[in-house]
Amino acid sequence: MALSRTILHVDMDAFFASVEQRDDPSLRGRPVLVGGRGGRGVVAAASYEARRFGCRSAMPMAQAVRRCPSAIVVPPSFAKYEADSARIMDILETASPLLEPISIDEAFVDVTGSLRLLGDGPTIAADLKRVIRDELGLNASVGVAPCKFAAKIASDLEKPDGLTVFEEEGLAVRLSTLPIGRMWGIGPKSKARFEARGIRTFGDLQNWSAESLVASFGAASARFHDLSHGRDDRPVVGDRTAKSVGHEQTFGVDLADPREVEGVLLRHVERVAARLRRRNRRARSIVVKIRDGEFVTNTRSRTLSEPTDRTDLLWETARTLFREWKFRPVRLVGMSAERFEEAVPDLFSAGDEENARNRRLDAATDAIRDRFGGEAIARTASAFPPG
């Protein structure tokens, strides 16, 4: 019998737009669209005031403005979003080391091992919401459930500022009334196929056998039967057991300045390096992911001669990989570290002043961020030797 788990899915409410409204009081209570106004501009985030007009993320900005002519269009401030995201993840990690970020504004947290110390799942969720609101002035919606799938669905049901709990007992009944479109992996085309066979809700899926689903919709549909009942045994993968640690950012408008893209990439590197040091890990392989404005994705990797957690060495490699790519306006940039080894003392470089200086700098930076938050200090590309 599987061990009962308590998993939270924490999802920030209209994250980019909420950050802009927090930092500019004149935007509060007004429809805000974060993104670019250019011909190819898209909405990176829409405030809840704008969503009432049908505006949503990934919508062409021109279409969103037609739907809501009174909307205020704000260019994205990715440095602020990254800094706030880093602090949010730090707050979530106070509840459990089993923290799995899945984007800049959402993460799973397995708090099963924290229940005796911190209280039950709803109590922990409420405490995390309060700390995020008090420290950052932002609202999060949280789902509490015995599995990742149900927790993610729960977090979306009472937005904004919601706290929804799915108990293990009666979970299938609780899910049964949800529309089939909320099922992971069922897009518009699949939804139409299911509805054509009379499957419009999770309850309808529950009434089919896994074998019948496979016979009618293919082998991949078998998992929908389990998910419709709230059965999902995927673990929350924390940094200690993860095979890679990374961060990436999708932009609401293509970034045409390579220096701006490098600035975002550097912040990814700093966050990855800090996570490696916190987990006493060093990485031997670096991967840089770039998606251009035509949605073509390019992934480049390099193996290091020695595993490292030093920010400057990780940045040197990531920057080199990025500059080897023929630059075009960028829609997404990300960086990840792989092939971990346990960190050991630098026995053969103890007298290396450069190594010692960079490790002191990393330690000081980590300490400042731990005490004052992710936005307290940030290095610029000019702080590193030219690539």
CATH topology of the domain at 244-383: Dna Ligase, domain 1
* CATH architecture heading of the domain at 244-383: 2-Layer Sandwich
What proportion of the residues is helical, as a percent range? 40-55%
Share of β-strand residues: 15-25%
Assembly type of the chains comes to single chain
Describe it for me?
This protein is an alpha+beta fold. Among the domains are: 171-228, DNA polymerase, domain 1 (Orthogonal Bundle), CATH 1.10.150.20; 244-383, DNA polymerase, Y-family, little finger domain (Dna Ligase, domain 1, 2-Layer Sandwich). The protein has 15 helices and twelve strands. The protein has helices spanning 15-23, 48-51, 61-67, 78-93, 115-118, 121-136, 148-157, 171-175, 188-196, 202-206, 210-217, 222-228, 258-278, 311-324, 353-372, and strands at 7-12, 32-35, 43-46, 72-74, 99-103, 106-110, 140-145, 163-165, 244-255, 281-292, 297-308, 330-342. A hairpin with a 7-residue loop joins strand 2 (32-35) and strand 3. Helix 13 packs antiparallel against helix 14. The protein starts with 6 loop residues before the first strand and ends in a 15-residue tail after the last helix.
How do the helices and strands line up, and which of them pair or pack?
Elements: E1 7-12, H1 15-23, E2 32-35, E3 43-46, H2 48-51, H3 61-67, E4 72-74, H4 78-93, E5 99-103, E6 106-110, H5 115-118, H6 121-136, E7 140-145, H7 148-157, E8 163-165, H8 171-175, H9 188-196, H10 202-206, H11 210-217, H12 222-228, E9 244-255, H13 258-278, E10 281-292, E11 297-308, H14 311-324, E12 330-342, H15 353-372
